[in-house]
Write a structure and sequence with these properties.
This protein has 347 residues and is α/β, with parallel strands linked by helices. It folds into 2 domains: 2-229, Type I PLP-dependent aspartate aminotransferase-like (Major domain) (Aspartate Aminotransferase, domain 2), CATH 3.40.640; 231-344, Aspartate Aminotransferase, domain 1 (Alpha-Beta Complex), CATH 3.90.1150. Helix content is 36%, strand content 14%. The chain has 12 helices and 13 strands. A hairpin with a 2-residue loop joins strand 6 (146-147) and strand 7. It starts with a helix and ends with a helix. The relative contact order is 0.16.
C-alpha cells in the first residue's frame, strides 16, 4: 500500500517512471534485454505479431490448446490461423506438425507453454529457422520455467508473459513482451501508443503507422513491481507442489502424469493429469472438495476459427483425457496429500 499510495497521490497515474522501473526489474528477473510492459498479454501478443510481419493473408502456425486470446490476437493482426497438432502427453505444440504445416505464406509460429511445461523450443526453433520464420512464445502459464538451463524469455524473437489476475505474478492485469532485438524496442514502444513517440514533443511527431492504446499505467506497474519482489518463493512453491505430484501420482491405474523434454523445467501453473474415464474422475474430485477443470476449450471448436479446421489426432487424444488440478502456492502440504490420497482410491 505505501508504494501504491505514492503513485495514486503523486500526480501521475498513466505511463511514466514506475512503468520503466517495472520493465527493468522484470528484464533482470528473466535475464533478458529489451522488455516492454502492456496493459494485457493479449495486447503484447498482437504487437509481437505486427513486429513479426503478420498482416492480411499471412499464415501463423499455432496451437488450439490454449486460452482463446492467443489465437484471437492472430486475427487482430489480419492473419490466418493454421493449426498444428499437439503432443498428447503434455498438450504442447508438436514440432513435427509445425514442420508439416509451413508454407510460403507462413510468417510466424506461435508457441504456448501449456500449464507451465516448456514446449520443445529447441526443436521448434530449428524447424522455424530453416525458413527464417520468427517464433512467438506465449509464456502466460510459464513465468519462472526454464529450458536448456535458461529462463523462458531468452530463446525466441518474441516472448509474452501474462500478468493477468490469476497468473504466477499479477499486476491485476497486464503483460510483458521480451524482444530479442534491441533495434525493435523503439518501434514496439510506438506501436503500443498510437504510433507516437511519447518522448518527442507532441506537435512535432509524425505518425507513420497505425498504433494502439496498449501501454501499461503506473498503478498496474507499481503493483507488479511489489509482486515481483516476492515472486521467487511463490514460483518455488508451485514447483515444489508440481514435483510432489510428479512423484505421488506415478503408477496410479488409469492415470498418467505429463511428460516433457529433458531440457524443460516446468513452473507448474496448474497440474495436468491424463485419465481414463476423465468425467467420472472430475465428479469424484468435486465430491471430495478438490477443484478441477478443463481450463480451456480447444480453440479449433470455436466458430470464429472455422476456416482453420483440420484433423488433429494428438489433440483429440489429449483433450479426451486431460484434467487440471491445483498446484499453486495456496496448496498446502496437507492439501496435496489429500489430493494424492483421493486419486489413489480410484474413481
Amino acid at each position: 500500500m505505501p508504494a501504491l499510495e505514492r503513485v495514486l497521490y503523486g500526480g501521475q497515474i498513466s505511463e511514466g517512471a514506475p512503468v520503466e522501473a517495472f520493465e527493468a526489474e522484470f528484464a533482470r528477473f528473466i535475464g533478458h534485454g529489451p522488455t516492454l510492459a502492456f496493459y494485457s498479454g493479449t495486447a503484447a501478443l498482437h504487437t509481437a505479431l505486427i513486429l513479426a510481419g503478420v498482416g492480411r493473408g499471412a499464415e501463423v502456425i499455432s496451437t488450439p490448446m490454449t486460452a482463446e486470446p492467443t489465437n484471437l490476437a492472430i486475427l487482430y493482426a489480419g492473419g490466418h490461423v493454421v493449426w498444428a497438432d499437439v503432443d498428447p502427453t503434455n498438450g504442447n505444440i508438436d514440432p513435427d506438425s509445425i514442420a508439416a504445416k509451413i508454407t510460403a505464406r507462413t510468417r510466424a509460429v506461435m508457441v504456448v507453454h501449456y500449464g507451465g511445461i516448456p514446449a520443445a523450443i529447441e526443436r521448434i526453433r530449428a524447424v522455424a529457422a530453416q525458413r527464417a520464420i520468427p517464433v512467438i512464445e506465449d509464456a502466460a502459464h510459464a513465468l519462472g520455467a526454464r529450458y536448456g538451463g535458461l529462463p523462458l524469455g531468452r530463446h525466441s524473437e518474441y516472448v509474452m508473459f501474462s500478468l493477468q489476475a490469476i497468473k504466477h505474478l499479477t499486476s491485476v492485469d497486464g503483460g510483458m513482451l521480451a524482444l530479442a532485438r534491441d533495434d525493435e524496442a523503439e518501434r514496439c514502444r510506438r506501436l503500443r501508443w498510437f504510433g507516437i513517440d511519447r518522448k518527442a514533443p507532441r506537435t512535432d511527431v509524425d505518425v507513420r503507422e497505425v498504433g494502439y492504446k496498449y501501454h501499461m499505467n503506473n498503478v498496474n506497474a507499481v503493483i507488479g513491481s511489489v509482486q515481483l519482489a516476492h515472486i521467487a518463493p511463490v514460483i518455488a512453491r508451485h514447483i515444489d507442489n508440481g514435483r510432489f505430484f510428479d512423484r505421488a501420482l506415478a503408477g496410479i491405474p488409469g492415470l498418467e502424469t505429463p511428460h516433457w523434454d529433458a531440457q524443460a523445467e516446468p513452473s507448474y501453473w496448474f497440474y495436468t493429469i491424463l485419465a481414463d474415464h476423465r468425467d467420472d474422475l472430475s465428479r469424484m474430485l468435486t465430491e471430495n472438495g478438490i477443484g478441477n477443470s478443463l481450463a480451456h476449450r480447444r480453440n479449433d471448436e470455436h466458430s470464429v476459427f472455422a476456416s482453420s479446421h483440420c484433423a488433429l489426432p494428438g489433440l483429440d487424444r489429449f483433450y479426451a483425457r486431460m484434467l487440471h488440478i491445483p498446484c499453486g502456492w495456496w496448496v498446502s502440504n496437507e492439501d496435496r496429500e489429500h489430493i494424492a490420497d483421493t486419486l489413489k482410491r480410484g474413481w
